[in-house]
Amino acid sequence: MTETHATITPGAPVFPAGRYGRRREPGRRRPMLPALLAVVLLATLGLLAAKLYRQYGDPRYDAQVITYTEITDSQVVVDFRVTVPAGGSATCVLRARASDGAEVGREEVTVTAQPGERRVDARHRLVTSARPFIGEVLRCRPAA
């Protein structure tokens, strides 16, 4: 014999009482927590991007190695070009590495452009602790 329920609308599913747990009440969902987490995530990513851009991505201070010469057991001469704002100065980090990749010399060098000029050609003798294989400019930033 089948059981008939007078309160169930036609077409609605019938579940045995107590078998599937408590049914949720239909109502308004609150997307507050996911929205708040999304805002916090976007703010964190924005701050991280701004920090990394200031540290590594300022295109106004661009450096290129032209050549490195006069390699001896204790030095390398690095010729490089730096693009700065007109008449500005930059502090650049120069590095020398040995053939095995080890850093054998590092120094900060400040270069200043002539008034109205945006490019500075510079030459610097970098003292090393062993024979260098290459001389390079790691980065340039505004002079302090």
From TrEMBL:
<feature type="region of interest" description="Disordered">
    <location>
        <begin position="1"/>
        <end position="26"/>
    </location>
</feature>
<keyword id="KW-1133">Transmembrane helix</keyword>
<dbReference type="InterPro" id="IPR025443">
    <property type="entry name" value="DUF4307"/>
</dbReference>
<feature type="transmembrane region" description="Helical">
    <location>
        <begin position="32"/>
        <end position="53"/>
    </location>
</feature>
<dbReference type="Pfam" id="PF14155">
    <property type="entry name" value="DUF4307"/>
</dbReference>
<keyword id="KW-0472">Membrane</keyword>
<protein>
    <recommendedName>
        <fullName>DUF4307 domain-containing protein</fullName>
    </recommendedName>
</protein>
<keyword id="KW-0812">Transmembrane</keyword>
